Every structure is written in C-alpha cells, then in structure tokens.
Amino acid sequence: MVTTKWFFEPSHTGAEFRARHMMVAHVRGQLKNVHGSLEVDPEEPEKARVEATIDATQVYTGQPERDAHLRSADFFDVEHHPTWTFVGSRVRQASGTEFEVTGNLTVRGVTRSATFDVTYLGQWDTPWWEGGRDLGPKRRAGFTARTRIDRYAFGVSWNDVVDRGGVVVSSMVDVVVDVEAVLEAGESAPALA
Predict the structure, then answer these.
(1) The pTM is what?
(2) CA separation (Å) from 132 to 20, 76, 82, 135?
C-alpha cells in the first residue's frame, strides 16, 4: 500500500480543554483555527506521522475577562507563544479503530512528550465547495484525540488558593481534539470499508 497525505480542514477541526474550577466544577475552553497534516499507510498505521498547530490567541470560554486572562502571561502568554504544536510519530494500534499516538507537545514554548488516545471515526466521499461550485467529491476522514496533561509541566502555573486548601484551577487538564482530515489533491483514495 502507499502512504496517503491528508490535511486538517480548519473550519471542521477544533480543540477543547477542560480543567476543574474552584474544586467543584469544570470550566471549558475552545480553540479553533487548528491546522495539521497526517501521513499514513492504511496497511501500516503504526508508521503514521501527524503534525498539528493550534492558534492559542483565539481561546474562547464564553467569558471575555477569563479569555483575556488565559491569553495573558499568567497562563498561555500568547504574546510570546501564540501557537501550540504537536508532532506525533509513534503509533500503537490498540484495536481496529483505536490508536495511541505519542509525540512532542509544545505549549507556551515548553515541549513535553504526550500520548493521545485517538479514535478513528471513518471516512466518506463528500462535496467540496469553492467559489460557489462543488469541486468534489473529496475524501474526508474523522478522528477524535484525547489526552490529559499537567499544565504545570508546560509552565502554565498561575493559581490561587481557596478555602480548606483548595485551588482555583486544577493542575490536570483534559484536552480533546476533533479532526476532519481531507485527502490531499492527487492522492489515491483508499477503499471505503
């Protein structure tokens, strides 16, 4: 089989993070404008390579003051570190549609190893609209990737204490990335299952 090349469609790809807030509930944030690529041989998925870049300047939690605080040097420091990146090249197939992808995650200029649990959601031939015309079909594939990181390990360490020794924001953060990948032009589409 041949390695196929895919690109992440930014309008249908996004990331979400979730952290405990005030010891009792979760607060969520969204990050759009996610770009990336995937190179994979369907017969040898363990040789796949993935790269992703997330625009941290556009963080959205639904609360403008919190968004501004997250963009500040207390958290993401987007003035100096506007993007997060992930480069994954170690893949283990756990089942037919479940994978572990390990690579280097960079947040706030700090790079650490991270493993994402990835679920392959399938693929389909779909329309492709440009300039008001359908130039499809284009092959799309879907994936959901999940990980949990310690934000302190990436230098995202602002916090404050609350009653009885609690903290305002947990150190552990859940990250979910939903990807809609499109087969690059000129690539041969693998057979649909």
Answers:
(1) 0.88
(2) 44, 38, 33, 9
Q: Which residues, in sequence order, are bridge partners of residue 53?
A: 35, 85
List the one residue out of 6, 19, 43 whose CA is nearest residue 123. 6
Taking the CA atoms of 93, 143, 33 and 152 in sequence, report the sign of the dihedral they define: negative
State yes or no: pLDDT of 8 exceeds 70. Answer: yes
Average pLDDT for 59-69: 93
